[in-house]
């Protein structure tokens, strides 16, 4: 297994499928825009196996920002024992907690989970990395790798699934009466507040609208005392290089833009990624980030909508609790075993939490979806 400094050094024939967040254009846009490089603590370190004919979108990290699988406590435990947790290797879509492929390979059925895992572990030892972390991998990769000296860590997100709805009203018709009325009231408040909603493809976005989007994007982080990870140049590069997979929905009040949300899509899925507003309008977040996305999926025939991480308020709006999966291996045997014990106990608590969330879904009993026990993708 060898490592490549640039995604452009990998054979183009490896890429299959339309999942956006590991495409060369996505990673290249983040690099050109200055959002991932050695200065930001994201050093491209793409692992390539010619024998297995696969590439891993991997990075050497000097911190744990922008990952959404929180291991700060593990880093602190290392420090307390006089050990270095950083640098570490992550195999992930940068800044993107969206389940999808983490092994870029034309035919994963030919892969050996044992050989691939051993290659990753050996590489970490050679490069003096504390361990490897595969974040938000899909179900096929989880099954391939998890029994080869990895610990699986689950988390819960809330996703929407298209059960062949004809329109938004058909979707709402399956809600309990009180929950349905609450959503109707929230959506009606847009008209009452004279809010107009318009969708823009990446090609339709003007520089002025991109500047407005970026103001909104940064305002969301600023409310938490943070700064957004991505530069405006990164968004321009994304729009230029993969316009067919990006749309933005903008809210206007009396022709003035006041809020927006950015979506990515592939052939089956919609991904809500960033949102923000410069005016405090009740229910605007729900409209732009949830209801508009649901309508878009129904209109386009997309099967699944991932609106982003966290947010229990999604449950009452028809988003189902699902597991996401990450795989972890630490080179230090003692800490590797301790992490295994930790994630096992954490998984038990998550199971109760997920069941509780499921029971809060707004659907009438005959329309309750099946409980999803494994990661959905």
3D structure, described in words:
The protein is of the alpha+beta class and 377 residues long. The chain folds into two domains: 2-156 and 321-367, Aminopeptidase, CATH 3.40.630; 163-302, 3-Layer(aba) Sandwich (Aminopeptidase), CATH 3.40.630. Helices cover 34% and strands 22% of the residues. The chain is built from ten helices and 14 strands. The chain has an eleven-stranded mixed sheet with strand order 2-5-6-7-14-8-13-12-11-10-9. Strands 1-3-4 form a three-stranded antiparallel sheet, with no helix packed on it. Strand 11 and strand 12 form a beta hairpin. Helix 1 (24-32) runs antiparallel to helix 8. The mean pLDDT is 95.
Brief summary:
The protein is α+β, with helices and mostly antiparallel strands and 377 residues long. The chain folds into two domains: 2-156 and 321-367, Aminopeptidase (3-Layer(aba) Sandwich); 163-302, Aminopeptidase (3-Layer(aba) Sandwich), CATH 3.40.630. The chain has helices spanning 24-32, 72-80, 113-126, 139-145, 168-172, 177-192, 207-222, 232-241, 284-300, 333-359; strands spanning 2-4, 42-44, 46-49, 54-56, 58-61, 88-91, 131-134, 151-161, 195-201, 246-253, 256-265, 269-277, 304-306, 320-330.
């Amino acid at each position: 297994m060898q490592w490549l400094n640039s995604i452009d050094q990998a054979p183009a024939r490896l890429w299959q499928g339309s999942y956006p967040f590991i495409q060369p254009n996505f990673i290249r846009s983040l690099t050109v825009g200055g959002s991932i490089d050695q200065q930001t603590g994201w050093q491209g370190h793409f692992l390539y196996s010619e024998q297995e004919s696969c590439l891993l979108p991997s990075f050497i990290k000097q911190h744990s920002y922008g990952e959404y699988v929180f291991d700060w406590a593990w880093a602190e435990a290392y420090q307390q024992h006089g050990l270095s947790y950083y640098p570490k290797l992550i195999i992930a879509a940068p800044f993107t907690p969206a389940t999808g492929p983490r092994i870029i390979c034309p035919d994963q059925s030919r892969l050996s989970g044992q050989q691939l895992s051993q290659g990753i572990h050996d590489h970490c030892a050679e490069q003096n990395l504390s361990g490897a972390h595969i974040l938000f991998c899909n179900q096929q990769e989880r099954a391939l790798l998890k029994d080869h000296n990895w610990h699986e860590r689950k988390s819960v997100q809330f996703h929407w699934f298209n059960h062949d709805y004809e329109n938004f009203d058909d979707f709402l018709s399956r809600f309990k009466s009180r929950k349905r009325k609450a959503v109707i009231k929230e959506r009606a408040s847009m008209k009452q507040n004279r809010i107009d909603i318009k969708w823009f493809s990446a090609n339709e976005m003007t520089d002025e609208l991109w500047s407005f989007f970026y103001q909104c994007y940064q305002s969301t982080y600023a409310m938490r005392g943070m700064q957004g990870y991505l530069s405006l140049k990164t968004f321009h590069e994304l729009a230029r290089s993969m316009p067919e997979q990006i749309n933005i929905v903008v809210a206007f009040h009396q022709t003035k833009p006041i809020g927006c949300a950015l979506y990515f899509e592939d052939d089956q899925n919609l991904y809500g990624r960033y949102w923000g507003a410069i005016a405090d309008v009740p229910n605007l977040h729900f409209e732009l980030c949830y209801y508009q996305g649901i309508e878009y999926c129904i209109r386009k025939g997309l099967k699944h909508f991932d609106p982003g991480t966290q947010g229990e308020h999604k449950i009452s709006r028809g988003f189902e609790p699902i597991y996401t999966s990450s795989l972890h291996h630490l080179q230090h045997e003692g800490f590797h075993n301790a992490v295994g014990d930790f994630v096992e106990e954490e998984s038990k608590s998550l199971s109760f939490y997920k069941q509780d969330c499921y029971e809060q879904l707004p659907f009438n009993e005959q329309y309750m979806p099946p409980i999803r026990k494994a990661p959905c993708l």
